[in-house]
């Protein structure tokens, strides 16, 4: 990877730590829905060793016992907050550049971070190799094909959410345009295909944010099974 690409990835979230956290705090019901999905897919983590790839500010981890959670985070701003929240940030860098020990983790998860990675094959391959037998790789994301995905891609291509095409359809507080625009939005099927090629055969799927974006912050939603309707979807791949 070139120095420029590394710098670009760092810059994506540098300077946005505060805005990122406050967006979730201002969208408290949306956050609660995503948190329920996060907790549901992690399950019982007692005695387990976890790795959060792109742990950001450790916002979600601050709602679980994160004493056994290691983190990798390229943005210094975000990672420093995660450290304060109790995540053991083992590297301020990109997952692409890290050597992970083999068969070491019970759970490796990417909470929203795959959406900022171009090539998922090497990073998922590396993660699978670092999992113990029976371990889980959990991928939580906004699917490209969801209403949220469409909204972000339209905002990205228009360079604004404040456009006649979007009039009367937007949530009161949309995700910061700069972060929506720097995303590399992937579809759920695309990620499933990558995992199948890497030998994964055992899958389960959970989703939340089934309502259209302008209504998602009205109340927290329950987690449901599947991946074809949600604005936030979890793929749980078991080894
Ligand atoms: C949408 S944020 C999610 C942060 C956190 N996991 C959460 O759920 O609040 C995506 C995070 O992935 C990180 N990221 C982007 N590219 C990455 C890469 N190649 N390796 C590791 N982390 C990356 C970003 O810096 C950012 O903190």
Care to describe what's here?
The protein has 239 residues and is an alpha/beta fold. Helix content is 34%, strand content 19%. It has one domain: Vaccinia Virus protein VP39 (Rossmann fold, 3-Layer(aba) Sandwich). It has an eight-stranded mixed sheet, sandwiched between helices. Helix 4 links the parallel strand 2 and strand 3. The N terminus is likely disordered. The protein binds S-adenosylmethionine.
Question: What is this structure, in a nutshell?
Answer:
With 239 residues, the protein is an alpha/beta fold. It has eight helices and eight strands; from the N terminus they run H-H-H-E-E-H-E-E-H-E-H-H-H-E-E-E.
| Average pLDDT figure | 94
Gyration radius, in Å: 17 Å
What's the tally of helices?
8
SS content category: alpha/beta
**Rough outline:** globular
What topology, given as strand order, has the largest sheet?
3-2-1-4-5-8-6-7
Ligands: S-adenosylmethionine
The residue ranges in which pLDDT falls below 50 over 5 or more consecutive positions are 1-7
Write the CATH architecture name.
3-Layer(aba) Sandwich
In the CATH scheme, the class would be: Alpha Beta
CATH homology group: Vaccinia Virus protein VP39
Q: Beta-strand percentage? A: 15-25%
Which key terms come to mind for this protein?
single chain; 8 helices; 8 strands; 34% helix; binds S-adenosylmethionine
Topology, please?
Blueprint (H helix, E strand, L loop, with lengths): L2 H11 L3 H10 L1 H15 L7 E4 L15 E4 L3 H9 L3 E4 L13 E7 L8 H10 L1 E11 L5 H12 L18 H5 L6 H10 L4 E7 L15 E2 L6 E7 L1
Parallel strand pairs: 1-2, 1-4, 2-3, 4-5
Antiparallel strand pairs: 5-8, 6-7, 6-8
This protein binds S-adenosylmethionine.
């Amino acid at each position: 990877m070139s120095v420029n690409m590394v710098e670009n990835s760092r810059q994506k979230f540098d300077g946005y730590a505060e805005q990122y956290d406050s967006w979730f705090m201002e969208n408290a019901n949306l956050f609660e829905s995503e948190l329920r999905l996060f907790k549901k897919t992690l399950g019982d983590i007692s005695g387990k060793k976890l790795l959060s790839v792109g742990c950001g500010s450790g916002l979600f981890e601050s709602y679980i016992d994160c004493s056994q959670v290691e983190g990798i985070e390229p943005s210094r701003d975000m990672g420093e907050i995660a450290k304060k929240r109790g995540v053991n940030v083992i590297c301020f860098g990109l997952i692409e550049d890290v050597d992970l020990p083999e068969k070491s983790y019970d759970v490796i998860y990417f909470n929203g971070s795959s959406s900022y990675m171009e090539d998922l094959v090497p990073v998922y391959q590396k993660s699978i190799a670092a999992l113990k037998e029976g371990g889980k790789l959990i991928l939580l994301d906004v699917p490209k094909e969801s209403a949220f995905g469409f909204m972000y891609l339209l905002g990205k291509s228009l360079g604004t959410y404040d456009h006649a095409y979007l009039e009367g359809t937007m949530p009161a507080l949309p995700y910061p345009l700069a972060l929506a625009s720097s995303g590399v939005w992937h579809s759920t099927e695309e990620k499933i295909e990558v995992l199948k090629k890497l030998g994964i055969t055992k899958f389960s799927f959970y989703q939340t944010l089934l309502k259209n974006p302008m209504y998602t912050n009205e109340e927290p939603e329950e987690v449901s099974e599947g991946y074809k309707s949600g604005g936030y979807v979890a793929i749980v791949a078991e080894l």
